[in-house]
Amino acid sequence: SNVDDEVWQDEGQLMKDCLQEIWRKFGQIDDEIWGKVVVMERNHRVAKAYLRAPELKINGDDSGFDGHCIGLSAFGSHPDEVKKRILDGIRLRMDGSGNLQVKRLSKSRVLVGGVEGHKTSPIELEREVTTTVFDLRGYRDMVERELRQPFPDIGQLE
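User: That's the sequence. What structure does it adopt?
Assistant: Structure tokens below.
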């Protein structure tokens, strides 16, 4: 792929391109895959991975991606101060009901956007507290309500 294909100036276009990439490969993606992680350094994609294991740790070590952990220091060049701040990172988990939960393990601040009920602004995670960032039942209910409307607003479902 072309280097320019890995750089985005617009967050909306990044999301559209990532979704198009998934749709192109959809028939080839294993049924056990539940998510995709894209590692960005500023506006440049430095790594991507499909998630199979129900739990993923993202931290500051240099292990790269092994299916259960992403060590961000393996991607790009990070000063020691950045590595030290990421350190223990976060744990992302999909529970048995399809909900996504995140727990901050690091002492450093972690902000998460798109959290249920806080869609317009990121929230700060509390250390060692599990936060649900996606509620599958709530999403299904919202889809059903919207589709019952005389003129459903598909944008409402994003």
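Helices lie at 11-25, 80-86, 136-147.
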